[in-house]
Amino acid sequence: MPGEGVSRGAEHAGVTEPMMSRGRGGEDGSGGLPVGVPGFDFRPVRPNDWPDIARLLGQDEKNGFRLERHMEATYDPFFGFVAVSADSSVCGAAVAGIARGTATSRPTRALQIVWIGVTPAFRRRGIARELFARVHGECVVVGATSIEVTVDGGEAEAISFFRAQQFEIERQTMDMVLSPHRGQQVTATRAPGSVEIRALHATEVGVLTGLLIHLAVERAVDPHDDLEALTPTAVTSILRRPGTVAYGAWEHDDPTSPVGFAIAVRRADEGVLRFIGVHEDSRRLGVGRALLGAIVSALGEAVGTAPSLPGPLRPVAIRIHDPEPVQVFFRKVGAEIVRVRMDLVRGA
Length: 348
Known about the structure:
With 348 residues, the protein is of the alpha+beta class. It contains ten helices and 13 strands.
């Protein structure tokens, strides 16, 4: 599945190979002004600190300068702070930045905490809180109006740490996968007798307009997918891209009345489901399962044959934002949860 790194360990959180130590903080735990931690010095990251930062991430120290280059390529500006113990070794660090392409003229500008971490021997002394306070103090300098961080959904202590720093959960993202074995079972699904499932082409998008409007109204309230928009123009553009597989569900008696459609992308070793939606009046009849079955079968077809020949089924990756209302469908067809991530945000 695509995406950023996941947190590892009960006290680790972040966005890219994240690490976080849950410091005790002040009495209110709000991550206020830097106050220091007895026995430790805090200073901005220096060029020769990157190998130590790589070590904190559990990587070879040789990767340190690769991390620095990654930050330079991805964030502008970026900065960091390190915690130094009495023996002059780096025992904690935090790195953050403004993602490149974020215009300074925009009304909102988010500072992203890329990772924050403390070596195990020095945890629970308030170091993580102090590192965060120093990152927070740079918001005015870089013109940030908010601070964002992503943590693994299973890391309760990491989430608790950021909630103590006044972060709120903005979005939950669930990555799931439908294995070839489970996909084989779904391909056996037949649509109800009143519905026909067939390939959807870009030339037919005009007929989808009414359905798109219906689904777009729901999507405006609860967007669960990564599509930029659910409009005829956006859908047409997706259907014309190489590797796109799409199927529609149509009323047998009225071929101009679609009741659902699904879009996926064929990749070298997997398929990626981009969207699946069924009109409210046709739900819970097996239409969605039949659409998914058609997609799974098509993803396994050999490319460039006429007609296409069946091939080995690919696993199908599924990403759902704020999944609670829709994950039930995917769980019922046999998809398994791979990862859950939490996007948290607070004002600067």
